[in-house]
Structure formats: C-alpha cells, structure tokens
UniProtKB/TrEMBL annotation:
<dbReference type="Pfam" id="PF03221">
    <property type="entry name" value="HTH_Tnp_Tc5"/>
</dbReference>
<dbReference type="Pfam" id="PF03184">
    <property type="entry name" value="DDE_1"/>
</dbReference>
<dbReference type="InterPro" id="IPR006600">
    <property type="entry name" value="HTH_CenpB_DNA-bd_dom"/>
</dbReference>
<dbReference type="InterPro" id="IPR004875">
    <property type="entry name" value="DDE_SF_endonuclease_dom"/>
</dbReference>
<dbReference type="InterPro" id="IPR050863">
    <property type="entry name" value="CenT-Element_Derived"/>
</dbReference>
<dbReference type="Pfam" id="PF05225">
    <property type="entry name" value="HTH_psq"/>
</dbReference>
<keyword id="KW-0238">DNA-binding</keyword>
<protein>
    <recommendedName>
        <fullName>HTH CENPB-type domain-containing protein</fullName>
    </recommendedName>
</protein>
<keyword id="KW-0539">Nucleus</keyword>
<feature type="region of interest" description="Disordered">
    <location>
        <begin position="484"/>
        <end position="537"/>
    </location>
</feature>
<feature type="region of interest" description="Disordered">
    <location>
        <begin position="444"/>
        <end position="471"/>
    </location>
</feature>
<dbReference type="InterPro" id="IPR009057">
    <property type="entry name" value="Homeodomain-like_sf"/>
</dbReference>
<feature type="compositionally biased region" description="Polar residues">
    <location>
        <begin position="460"/>
        <end position="471"/>
    </location>
</feature>
<feature type="compositionally biased region" description="Basic and acidic residues">
    <location>
        <begin position="524"/>
        <end position="537"/>
    </location>
</feature>
<feature type="compositionally biased region" description="Basic residues">
    <location>
        <begin position="488"/>
        <end position="499"/>
    </location>
</feature>
<feature type="domain" description="HTH CENPB-type">
    <location>
        <begin position="67"/>
        <end position="144"/>
    </location>
</feature>
<feature type="compositionally biased region" description="Polar residues">
    <location>
        <begin position="502"/>
        <end position="520"/>
    </location>
</feature>
Amino acid sequence: MVSTYKRKSDRQKWSAESMKQAIEKVFTGVMGLRKASDAYNVPKTTLKRRVQFYRRNQDISKATVKKMGRFNTIFTKQQEEELATYVKDMESRFFGLTTKDLRSLAYDLAEKNKLKHIFDKGTKMAGRYWLESFLRRNPDLSVRKPEATSAARASGFNKVAVRKFFSLLLEIIDTYKLTPDKIFNVDETGMTTVPKSLPKIIGRKGKKQVGLLTSAERGQLVTVVFCLSAEGSYMPPLFVFPRKRFKPELMNNAPRGSSAECHESGWIQKDIFTKWFQKFITFSRASKNTPVLLLLDGHASHTKNLDVINLARANGVHIISFPPHCTHRLQPLDVGFLKPLSTYYSDAAKQWLRTNPGRIITQFQIAELVNKAFERSATIPIAHNAFRATGIWPPNPDIFTDADFLAADTTEIDENEQVAQQIDEPQPCCSKSLSSANVVPDAAAREEISDSDDEPLANLRQSSNQDSPSARSFLISPAQIMPIPKNKQTKRVTKRRGKTAIITSSPYRQELQEIQNKGNQVKRRLDVDESRGKGIS
C-alpha cells in the first residue's frame, strides 16, 4: 500500500450524523427509504442495509460506522492511544524509542495479544508505512534528534532538590524584598577558536558529505564569564585566556567594559573568580542597605572560596548555589542565553573566515567574535524569558510539573533518604529568621515533608503505570513487553559537586573554614615530613 494514497472513489461521502438521522426516521416510520435518502443525502441501498442491521442489533453507533475495503487497522483507537502514551512516557524518562524499537514493539504487541496483522514475520517488525501512518494519527509524536543527557542529570533533577532550592530562593526574596534588578546569575562557558555548532548549508543533493571551513581540527578554549540580571542588564564579560602573560592585543574589539585574566589551563580559578566578584559588587551596587542575590553553580571556585564569601558578607551579597546536576533546568544562563550566544558566535566565526581568506582564528580573535555574538544575544527579552522559564522571576515554584521529574523517578530515588541526607548536612542560613527554611527541626516536620512529597509521586507512578488493568486496552501491555528501566539506589552518595545552600551564611562559612584549616594542617605536616626526609638524606 502506498503511503501517499489519495482516495479516488466518491463512495461513503455521507456523514455519520446524516445516516443516523435517516435511520431513525425510517425505523420510526416517519419517512420512507426514498424520502429519507433524498432528505439526508445518503444512498438508498446503503440506508436500507443499515436500517436492517439496526433492527437486528439495536446499536445505532455500529449502524453508522463508515468502512471501505478489506483491510482493518491492527490496533484499535484505544490501543494506539495506550501505545502513544507509553512512547511519550519512555521519552520523558530519557529512554526514548527509536523507529526500529517502535516497529519491533508493535510486532510483539500484535503477536502476544493474538491480533490479526500483516507485519513481516521474517524481520519481526511492523512496516515502514505502518510507522508513518501511526505518526500521522498521533501528531504530537515526531522523530527527534535527542540531546545527550547524563545519568547524573537525569537523577539529580528531582522534586526534593528543586523544592529545597525554591524554599531558599523565596525566603531570601521575601526577607530582603528583592526586585528583579537585584537578582543575578553568573556562569562560565568555553569559547573555542573552532565553533561548537555549525549552521546548516545548502549543498548538492545526493552528495554523501558536505563540509564547512573551520580554523583547525581542534580549537583553543577561552573561558568567558557572563552575568545577567532578571531585569535584563548584562555585566561586561571576563575572559580567561590559556597563557601565562597577557597581551593587550587579546582584547582588541572586545565587548565594552570587559576584562581579561590569564591562566595556563584557561579555566576559571578561585583567585580569578574573586577578582571578577569585586567587579560584580561595583556593577550591582550591592551594599548592606541594598542587598542583592547572586545565583551560581556548585563549582569549587564559587562555593569553596572563602575570599568570595567574606567579600559577599561584607557587601550585602547573598549567594545561593544550584542543586547538583540541575543547572540545565534551573540556571537562566544555561536555559536561555548560552545557546543563542553559541549560535551567533558560530555565525561571526564563519563570516570572519569568509572575509579573511587564508587566515585562521586564534586567541586574538576570540574577544572580537564574542563581542559580535554578545551584541546580538544580550537582549532584555532573552533575559526575561530565561528567568521566567526557570521559575526564578517571577518566582514560580510550580514551574515544573510531575512529567519533568519522570527521569528521576526512573531511578527510584527514595525521597525520605534524600530529605534525611539534607537534614544531616549542615544547613546554612543568612540570618536567624532563615534557619527554619534550611533545616527540618524535628521528626514531626520531617514526617510532614515526607508525607507531602510521597503523595504526588505515588499518584504519578500510578498514572504512568501501564500495567493497571483499568487503564489497559492490551491484554499484554507495552510496558510488559518492554519494561521501564528501574535502578534502585541503595548506597548514599557522599561525594557530591556542591549542594543547594546559601553559601554566604555563617554555618556554611564556618564549615568551609574548618575544612580549609584541616587541609592546611595536613599540608604543613607533609611539608615537615618532606623537609625531615631531605635533612636525613
């Protein structure tokens, strides 16, 4: 059967409602066959046959069914709806089905449920035309290219971590009456001499491979620090070049007001971030009387930097770190700014190579290209949309639905265990009034939190459970043939990349100071042992 088949017959162009009314008129004796046929524009012979069928079965819905040809659909409408729901559920859990997976699953469903089908028994898969028809009947499904998502991100973005982050955020906003011009987000990204993403081009049809000129096979990476506010203001970026000495030529045509630092690795370091933070205090006009909020990820240069913490406490800057592995959904820069910046940077690099034939992009062109991309991407609507999509401003703790946490539900994370782990950790607070937001004081409160969280997750599991007899249209459901992967986590994770906390609070600072003091003691002991060894030798 051709997938683009167009109907050529004029048969059965009547509507089901017209046929229903005609059958009722003839059956009750109000009209004869000919009169009803003319009045409702239905074929006389068909009307006669349908009236006889209705007299035998007394089922008007079956009497008005339109069907032509000898072929029947393999699955009923309810079965296809269940299959489509299963496909969307697997995609939400980051276990999406490929086209071959779906075709193989359709064959297994037909076989195990003993349904009559015309699928290929040699390949044990449904046909390509069935797949195309299935996608047409379910327009909310399409073949997409997935984005690689680590298991840590899939399990890290869970309801417990997100709820804790929003509780800290709302407490800070309400306590200090913060407005959007006082809420900032900072993050670093790597800009390379070879752009990360290349645009699509028009080439010869049928050619196996098309190319686009780049500076080299592998590029040099320059770290750039960006910061924006919920109001839409952007701080001039900071460049970290992978070299020992700085040259003024590196900042030719750089964004106005931007600065630069050098380090052999090209990555952000604690001292470099401290210098940037001093500039941020000036840019944000933070003080004890006009406090501001800075949101950042759990990188060690941010959260384990006592110099930054002391500067922030002295100048009225409150810092909240995002939960581990959640920045792809919670950080405004990741959600709304860095993607267009990367796209515009690729466009600028392509244009530069076109206008400078024979030359390649080096570190000395990075600032200029970033400037062109920054001018196009640093807009007020992008900033507003980025903060709105993450629920940070306007504050919206319910921005994420149960479907957004399905991936974490796959790992069967025990919420009671997570809550207990977060209780055991030292929970910082910016003042005495905030202590209740950061720690659960007693067992009763812990039980209250546990009960409130378990209920929606239980409902979610029940709603997504395809094995429920009341929700099934198959005798053997898709979830039974291809079960949803589960991974029970029994070990408590001790090594974590930061944690959700107000890192400018006294408890957090004291904890960090103690850790640093212990590290210094161990380092001094090792130095003494090494010096003694050299003296003996």
